[in-house]
Amino acid sequence: MHRVRIKICGVTRVEDALAAARAGVDAIGLVFYPDSSRVVTMDQARAISRALPPFVARAALFLDASEDEVRHVIETLRPDVLQFHGREAPEFCRMFGMPYLKSVPMGEDDIDLGAWAEAYGDAQGLLLDANRAGEAGGRGKTFDWQAEAERPDLPLVVAGGLSVDNVAEAIRRFTPYAVDVSSGVESAPGIKDAQRMQDFAAAVINTIG
Ligand SMILES: O=C(O)c1ccccc1N[C@@H]1O[C@H](COP(=O)(O)O)[C@@H](O)[C@H]1O
Fold first, then answer.
1. Which of 51, 71, 81, 115 has the most C-beta neighbours closer than 10 Å?
2. Pathway, per Swiss-Prot/TrEMBL (predicted)?
3. Is 176 in the pocket of ligand 1 (CB under 6 A)?
């Protein structure tokens, strides 16, 4: 059994990135979706990036951004991984030649994870989120964890409405590669709470999947 990796998404402040690193997380996410309350400017993203200690990965999150927007972030920030949350086609996701995660809209009926894994076979993993296709996430909403889901042949990242109260159950249900949380460790949108991040990380570390 591997250690379940932890990603904290929607970091907007240097102090929150440092608190996340102290909590022992593996990655943070920077949101480049303009309509998000957690969107970061390039200056914010650069400051957060520079402040992070080694070995904390940075994911750049997009929702149906243009090719130019994605390229601009890649060239300016050099993120470690791209995270696509919209209706991006496989060809779009792979055109940047970078590791990427593809979010799966688990809020839709009858999602076939096997088909998603086949379509996005070169993704580093599939991120299960509670949204419907094209809808923004980050709203603390869970999807139906009881629905029958085929186990795909790709690492799974579970997201959507996770918190210290339910992350252990999510790990037991999905045995994911990683968990991703945003609003469940916030005191306000885009403002992370150091204690909540610590508690969340402790809950993950103390859970056997
Ligand atoms: O956080 C956002 O504003 C956001 C915008 C557009 C797409 C995804 C977004 N957030 C991601 O949604 C999931 C779940 O978040 P939560 O824990 O339920 O708040 C997570 O991957 C966020 O990074």
1. 81
2. Amino-acid biosynthesis; L-tryptophan biosynthesis; L-tryptophan from chorismate: step 3/5
3. no
Is 123 within 8 Å of 102 (Cβ atoms)?
A: yes
- Helix segments in 103-143, DSSP class H: 113-119
Separation between Cα atoms, residue 169 and residue 24, nearest integer Å: 20
pTM of the model: 0.96
Above 0.95 for ipTM, yes or no?
yes
pLDDT score recorded for residue 63 = 97
9 is annotated as an active-site residue: yes
Q: Which of 182, 185, 192 to mutate to test ligand 1, by most ligand atoms within 8 A of the CB atom?
A: 182
Complete domains list, the chain, with CATH: 5-205 (3.20.20.70)
Is 192's C-beta closer than 6 angstroms to any atom of ligand 1? no
| SS3 (DSSP) at 90 | helix
